[in-house]
Amino acid sequence: MLRFAQALAQERGIECPEEVKADYSACRQFLDEHAPEKGKSKRGPNRRSIPEARPARPEPADSRSRDDDHRKPTGPMVGFARRLAQERGLTVPPGVLESFQQCRAFLDQHSRTGSKGARP
Q1: Of 118, 79, 73, 64, nearest to 100 (Cα)?
Q2: pLDDT tens column, 62-74
Q3: What is the CA radius of gyration of the chain?
Q4: CB atoms closer than 10 angstroms to residue 5
Q5: Euclidean distance between CA atoms 64 and 48, whole angstroms
Q6: The pLDDT of residue 102
Q7: pLDDT, tens only, 46-91
Q8: Which sequence spans correspond to the domains of the chain?
Q9: Dihedral, CA atoms, 90, 93, 95, 100, nearest 10 degrees?
Q10: What is the structure's pLDDT at 91?
Q11: Quick one: which of 25, 39, 81, 91 has the most CB atoms within 10 Å?
Q12: How far is 10 from 45, CA to CA, in rounded Å?
């Protein structure tokens, strides 16, 4: 909020009062007096508020499936898989510690909180 007040003062060509830098209430009052009301800016619409101005993101499932095929599992995933296998007397299947997809499937199948095949 202080940075906004300082930027606003500089933009308007006025000095940012010292009390604005030290007191929240003074900063809030300064902004109330000098900041434009939302939607009434002289600079035009804010590009960040216009959805068309942003590039479309791929669907999360699509991007995950392409990236996960060649990605290694994270350190916490590997540690959790090893711990689960040890606690349940399982052998970690080949590839689980090298493939994100296989590790995720193993964790989903054997963890209590997994989304698929969770144990009660």
Answers
A1: 73
A2: 445 556 668 999 9
A3: 26
A4: 20
A5: 26
A6: 92
A7: 555 545 555 555 555 544 555 666 899 999 999 999 999 999 999 9
A8: 2-43, 60-110
A9: -50
A10: 92
A11: 81
A12: 21
